[in-house]
């Protein structure tokens, strides 16, 4: 049993074969998926997927790249959706200093607002962090995010940063980049994360694992991430599946 803890099956890149993509995931033993809605367009399509398929759950939030576009009514909308029975987290939220689309101060304000909302609604948070490790950790600490914890999505930082996140009640999730042949640091960091804090994901359709690197990713490929994790840790794929599934169900409150 596997859980893809971060996917975007509502992406337009799946419009021609979404059903087949979902069937392939199920055939590979992916029994649950968490789809991420992150802006005005993808939140409704994420909710629609979760309502259509019993094994798909939803996370909803406002992506840092789109922070400049978020209005007060959008935050109220997200707050109302957090009461939906299939919505298990708020995300993906955080900071992205790579793409120059939203000013840093705006990103940080929107990030803080959503952490506060997560605490009010008692929902874990899914963190997007690109080139902003120091500020992400600082804001998580200042806002008391350890009260709800959550996931460091597609983790790419150092072990020192990972330790700080672990101390704040966060799980560390690895995706396709873990499988890349030159991924020395992610492999070293992953090997140090306690087993009860490890998660796996795809971020499909992005960041396809080896040997599909550069192509469209899909949830079935989460097994390739599990294979790499198993090889590094000297465990069976079945054991990695069991461990990461138990962790995901605990993190997101899925029964």
TrEMBL record:
One of its GO terms (molecular function) is exonuclease activity. Pfam families: TatD_DNase (PF01026). InterPro entries: DNase_TatD-rel_CS, Metal_Hydrolase, TatD-like, TatD/YcfH-like. The keyword Hydrolase applies. It comes from the Bacteria. CDD domains: TatD_DNAse. Keywords: Exonuclease, Hydrolase, Metal-binding, Nuclease. PANTHER family: D-AMINOACYL-TRNA DEACYLASE. This is YchF/TatD family DNA exonuclease.
